[in-house]
Amino acid sequence: MNANDAITRDAAGHDGMTRETRQVGRSLGRLEARSKVTGKAEYIHNLVLPRMLHAKILRSPVAHAHLRGIDTSAARAMPGVHAVITSEDVLRIIPEPYFGPAFHDQPILAIGKVHYVGEPVAVVLADDPHVAEEALHLIVVDYDELPAVFDEVEAWSPDVVVHDRLKPAGTFPDLKHLEGRTQTNVALDFRVRKGDVAKAFAEADHVFEHTFRTQQVMHTPLEPMISVAEPFDDAITLHTASQSPSFVRIEIARLLGWPENKVRVRTGILGGGFGAKLYIKLEALAAALALLVRRPVRVALTMEEQFFTITKHATTFRMKTAVTREGQITGRECEVWWNGGAVADIGPRVTQKSGFTATGPYEIDNVSIDSYAVYTNLPPAGAFRGFGIPQMVWAYESQADMIARALKMDPVAFRRKNLLREGRAHPTGTIMHDAALTLCLDRIADRMKWDAPFDRGTPKLRRGRGIGIGFKACVAPTTSVAIVNLSADGSCIVYSSTVDMGQGSDTAIAMMAGDVLGIPAETIKVIHPDTDVTPYDMATLGSRSTFHMGHAVRLAAEDAKANLEALALQVGLPATATAAQVLPKKYGMQAGNIVGVGSYIPTYKSPDHDTGQSENITPNWMVGACGVEIEVDTETGQLKVIRFENVVDCGTAINPLVVDTQISGAAIMQLGSALLEDMEFDAQGQLRNASFSEYKIPGIHDIPNVIGREIADAYQSNGPFGAKGVGESATFGVASAIAEAIEDAVGVRLTSLPLRPEAVYRAMAAARNEPLPDEE
Amino acid sequence: MNANDAITRDAAGHDGMTRETRQVGRSLGRLEARSKVTGKAEYIHNLVLPRMLHAKILRSPVAHAHLRGIDTSAARAMPGVHAVITSEDVLRIIPEPYFGPAFHDQPILAIGKVHYVGEPVAVVLADDPHVAEEALHLIVVDYDELPAVFDEVEAWSPDVVVHDRLKPAGTFPDLKHLEGRTQTNVALDFRVRKGDVAKAFAEADHVFEHTFRTQQVMHTPLEPMISVAEPFDDAITLHTASQSPSFVRIEIARLLGWPENKVRVRTGILGGGFGAKLYIKLEALAAALALLVRRPVRVALTMEEQFFTITKHATTFRMKTAVTREGQITGRECEVWWNGGAVADIGPRVTQKSGFTATGPYEIDNVSIDSYAVYTNLPPAGAFRGFGIPQMVWAYESQADMIARALKMDPVAFRRKNLLREGRAHPTGTIMHDAALTLCLDRIADRMKWDAPFDRGTPKLRRGRGIGIGFKACVAPTTSVAIVNLSADGSCIVYSSTVDMGQGSDTAIAMMAGDVLGIPAETIKVIHPDTDVTPYDMATLGSRSTFHMGHAVRLAAEDAKANLEALALQVGLPATATAAQVLPKKYGMQAGNIVGVGSYIPTYKSPDHDTGQSENITPNWMVGACGVEIEVDTETGQLKVIRFENVVDCGTAINPLVVDTQISGAAIMQLGSALLEDMEFDAQGQLRNASFSEYKIPGIHDIPNVIGREIADAYQSNGPFGAKGVGESATFGVASAIAEAIEDAVGVRLTSLPLRPEAVYRAMAAARNEPLPDEE
Predict the structure, then answer these.
(1) Helix (H) or strand (E) segment spanning residue A603
(2) What pLDDT shows up at residue A13?
(3) In whole angstroms, how large is the CA radius of gyration of chain B?
(4) Bridge-partner residues for B231, per DSSP?
(5) Is A450 within 8 Å of A647 (Cβ atoms)?
(6) Where do Basic and acidic residues bias regions lie (chains A, B) (predicted)?
(7) Rounded to a whole number, what is the distance in Å from the CA of B587 to chain A's nearest CA?
(8) What DSSP character marks residue B459?
């Protein structure tokens, strides 16, 4: 095992490898595609275990209340009901049944209080899921309602406190400053300081201050969440649609007080994740239920239940920017409130990791960032494709455009002037390397024909255009381990805990291993995550897999290759001999294995909590730029994206075909957040549209006719094969580009998402001082 | 990866390991015991897959015939029948559907001919196994009967030839001399030559010549054979009760023309194996069926069907020995005929590997051994606990006793005089090391109080006693690979393809890994064989696992330990730091793995075919000595073993508790072969007792009241922790000791197994020149 942080372009040049054996850079269909279309791909939803019970969850109907009592007798008496479980039962086997990646604040079932509508209160177990569901109606819960708080800014100065006590997870290093703090809704207040912001504002030619808001939305993976727990004598197996099997193992082991090797966590193919299936979700409940009844238990959510399980943070972002009359940004103050809902989940880390980029991809001498993770009485928010960056970009790119317009500068020129360049320092002190910001901006402008005449449409259907650019630091510091095993016929198996949830990771892993070993990716088998089988990986999140697991796979393959070469020489064969030549010679028959192990962690630092400063805050920056042309109906506010261009810097594209679909997929998903999706809560915290008949995600008719995408000609010097991640980059600039295009088309500026026709209509009416229909 | 053949006693001394952390030498209950008694251990018989079809096999009712035609129309038409499969179907997907470890002579289903009663001819597939069984009766097969041969000596000079053409497997190195030979029933004729046997006989004071025979018996694992094949798009998984998953993978891959990594073979816990489940049995049929119908297929044998699937070789052993009047053996000529039945299976290797020990554990200057693997029209014979050694020992120890009696020497003294001693050469040229022959003989004599007065019973119930000693070379050369993985909490998983079939290998593996790593065996998880998960191992056979897999596990654990130490130093911790200290420090959280890999193959040679000579024929010799006291009813011939003593040399006992049960288990199993079991064929090759109502294995009332067992105080210098295997050693001396005791009690000598009361009675009657009842 070894790790190597710095690989030069030459080192990745693969001496002696012919064009035929190069795998990286091929456009290769997903290796699992056939199994998916023939219905043979393994999804946990299809798993049936003997004696398996189905769990259905009774959820809180109120946002904040003391639990006075739960009467389960009628439900227990219902024919077909195997058991009814409350926290009282759970506490018999798990004394501290609270879990979570940043805070141990999520009870397996509500204990004493409920904190949001939809919080799990009790579970019915039955052989028939319909019986379990019916019996839920027979459980009587006595709630003593409490005042609730829903707005993130309001919750920041609390009248209502969601949790009596903060419970930071011991292993979350960034939360030390919370020690001793109990009565607050602020789970994390992270800051970055550079220069003297007050002075910058005082000396500025112009100061702009705006507030931007984003709404709470849901991940909507097409495969809803599911965990099946299978108990053994002194062990447990979790079959779960999880993006982070290694984390689930560790967290379940912690809850049970067991060693890791008594907890087995395995995943199948995932039908989408987008962050919803990260860290620990249903697994703790499934494990507790299975251990209580000593039978396999299946906890499967409906699509609707996911709205109450994990969401994307709503945010409020106050941004104040000092600018010279020439358009140079000289200072920026950012305050961001992240609405985490009632459970921290990974929100504090989102608050930090995205918070430190709040000033955008711009070189600014004076910076102040305050980023607050705030508890409210809403359903939990956590990681969502982009990990908070789409919210940040929405704000800083909206303002960039507003400033450019105010200064009568071309918005592309304004950005180009301020962009961070190679070798310059980010506000955290980190020197920028291999972030192709200027290239991506240039390429998007070129694709949009930015400097050419633009058709502005008709008085009824007005046209406008906009661009946006954002960047994201790769999550740090995280670890990946991979193992490569060659059989005596030369065939290869790769062991990796990266979860293929549609992003094509199996294929990328096979390509990277095959590239090192000189064998076609199609012949390589990639074993799916199973903590009894595949080694540790932090998680499949944040576009980290190509970079981190890519390195681990590369190192494992290189280790295998070195072991093969050593054995070849030992048995008197040339160093270039294949496993199919070496192993039979060594062992006298088709026998044995060549095993290679790769462990990777990049050498960089988390930012210091108090200043946000660090010399080396991330191993790489991912860049995405977006350009849109839209058409707005001036009578109705209806808007249509007619051209949708996205350019990303992902370094080398391991598999250009899959990168292409990642660009489109990410951009379209963000189109949903920008234009359509919104979890609508009433004043009591009741979600009014928790179903797809009322909650609209992009359908085929919402997709722009013209979708262009481009992989910037870039190279990540320290990446495996020059690569870095790409799963999120095309989400970054979408929303602000559309808001910019709306202003470009009809002269109104929206600062809250989503950018719905009624908002456009209202803004246009307000600009014309017209009364709105409902105000007449 | 590295291999180390020579470990000194000191090197295994584990500097710095305290008594508390030493694992080797503990008497530890099997780790899986609880899961077995609670019914939770995984047996393949319990596996239910969605859409799984049940296969039932139509078997040949005749011993040798041309197949004129098969009419499956009525069976196909039966309601509930999914398909009826014959070789015609198989040939569509597998052009050469013949398999086997030594010869590719076993068709998946009979092609053109049948060669023994019970040979699979056709298969019915149905959702309901009873429907499949019923439908078998509707298949009409037209047989054109041929003359058959059943006796191994008769088949050696053939009038009837079983196979038209010999088909040695390309990878079986010992069969090169068969090239070009076709029309013979001799699959292998292996020889050893040393000195001048003719001269020895000419110059001898005494020459003894006898012929000994053993019968065909069955392994009778309490879990009958089962294989379930699960087809995927371009891959297949075999869930199978196999002792050799790595071999099955390679052989299925060869049959299908696929790479190894498209074939996954996994086993559960086995309910006994004893050699019956070795190499490839039902797997090829299950795979072909599943690929033909594209559904999972379960092939599960009844207990009765196993009689027609694999058995223990019947043998005829002609032995001629030259002796001085002082009792020194000066020459020995052995001719052994192994009745392999109609399929070679691993018979040729049994013929060779046991054949070269046919002269026994004695130092003899002039030796000639001829050992013949012979085809007959009986059900196949293969590996059976002891791998042919019990048959050899039966003969050479019977004759040893007969010679001692003729010379009026004490049989212990006769053996002691001739035994091979440390540093002396075996007839193959191999120098004896660490074979505690004299020690085991001394210990068995001591336990039997050999020199004390012995109660000879009454005229009706006469008492006698006997001893026997045998040895076995460990199968050579073979490979084992193991992987050890430490998690960041220090918990440990070991990956090994050794199959735990009741012999306690999981526990031994955990103890050996734990010993190196200094952690209790009970905390270590041993992953069961799965070729997608666990690395290569030749097979679980021939008592090789403790030695070979023991070394691989030791090397893997040492590799992990070295990697851990290196990482500890890298992160500034002492070299003695634990994984739970080092990994969190390295990775900043509970993350990562320490992986160690161990590959082992001992450095020794297969004997040269033409002379049998080799300087280094085996990495170790396993020794077993047996002593019995019996009581014979002189009126009926009924005999009862009243004292049963067994001493083995297994070097260090890794787990004395389990070694103890292995000694008893092996000895009692051989008691069945010696006294009770016999597959009785009629003149047409029909088995008359293929059921446990008629085929008797030892029951509780057959077990001697006094069973003593002893682990000799020995040490295997090149073994892992000083250990070697023990699963077979106590089978060696049982049968001859009983025959010796019979002569000691009632003065008659039996030279054929089993030693049934009627045989004793007949021999006594013959000795008294009395007519037998059926002769009256």
Answers:
(1) none
(2) 38
(3) 27
(4) B236
(5) no
(6) 7-27
(7) 7
(8) S
Average the pLDDT over A612-619 and give the result. Answer: 82
Structure tokens at B562: 């070295």
Sign of CA dihedral B751, B755, B760, B761: negative
- Which residues from chain A sit within 8 angstroms of residue B519, using beta carbons? none
More confident of the two residues A166 and B146 = B146
Q: Could you give the residue numbers annotated as active site of A?
A: 728
Decide which of A190 and A239 is more confident: A239
Helix axes A734-746, A757-767, angle to 10 degrees: 40
Cα dihedral A320/A326/A328/A330 (nearest 10): -60
Ordered structural domains, chain B, with CATH: 11-30+478-600 (3.30.365.10), 429-474+618-775 (3.30.365.10)
Q: N- to C-terminal Cα distance for chain B?
A: 73
SS3 per residue for A433-476: CCCCHHHHHHHHHHHCCCCCCCCCECCCEEEEEEEEEEEEECCC
- C-beta atoms of A1 and B563 within 8 A: yes
3-state secondary structure of B369: strand
Residue A124 makes CB contacts below 8 A (sequence gap 6+) with A55, A56, A58, A75, A81, A83, A84, A85, A131, A132, A133, A135, A136, A139
In the structure, what pLDDT confidence band is assigned to residue B610 with cuts at 50, 70 and 90? confident
Question: Buried (b) or exposed (e) across B578-611, using 16+ Cβ within 10 A?
Answer: bbbbbbbbbbbbbbbbbbbbbbbbbebbbbebee
How distant is the Cα of B595 from the closest Cα of chain A, in angstroms? 7
Helix axis angle, A579-587 to A545-570, nearest 10°: 50
Residue B158: what pLDDT?
82
Residue B597, both tokens:
């890999």
Identify whether B477 is preceded by a cis peptide bond (ω within 30 of 0): yes
Q: What is the pLDDT of residue B159?
A: 87
Asked if A744 and A572 count as a contact pair (C-beta separation under 8 A), the reply is no
Which residue out of B585, B587, B594, B606 would a mutagenesis test of the A interface target, given it has the greatest number of A Cβ atoms within 10 Å? B587
Instruction: Count CB atoms within 10 A of the CB of residue B699.
Output: 9
Q: Which helix (H) or strand (E) holds A33?
A: helix A33-37
**In the predicted model, what is the mean pLDDT of residues B294-318?**
97
Which phi-psi region, left, alpha or beta, contains residue A721 (left: φ > 0; alpha: ψ -120 to 50)?
A: left
Q: Are B545 and B496 in contact (CB under 8 A)?
A: no
Q: What is the mean pLDDT of chain B?
A: 94
Regarding pTM above 0.90, the answer is: yes
Joined together, the tokens standing for residue B442 give: 């001394």
Which chain B residues are closer than 8 Å to A533 by Cβ? 527, 532-533
Given CA atoms B31, B32, B35, B38 in this order, what sign does their dihedral have?
A: negative
Angstroms from B114 CA to nearest CA on chain A: 31
Please enumerate in sequence order all residues whose Cβ is within 8 A of that of A95, keeping only pairs 6 or more positions apart, or say none: none
Instruction: State mean pLDDT over A559-580.
Output: 97
Lookup: tokens for A575: 């160093």
Check: CB of residue B59 under 8 Å from CB of residue B307: no
d(CA A30, CA B306): 44
Q: How far is CA B598 from CA A261, A492, B440, B480, in A?
A: 20, 18, 33, 8
Choose from A599, A601, A605 for mutation: most chain B CBs within 10 A: A599
Find the Cα–Cα–Cα–Cα dihedral B384, B388, B389, B390, rounded to 10°: 70
DSSP string, B540-574: S-TT-HHHHHHHHHHHHHHHHHHHHHHHHHHTT--
Identify the pLDDT of residue A611.
77
* Interval B394-424: pLDDT, tens: 999 999 999 999 999 999 999 999 999 999 9
According to DSSP, residue B154 is labeled: H
Q: Identify which of A38, A233, A259 has the shortest CB distance to residue B38.
A: A233
User: What number of C-beta contacts closer than 8 Å exist between A and B?
Assistant: 146
Residues of B with catalytic function? 728
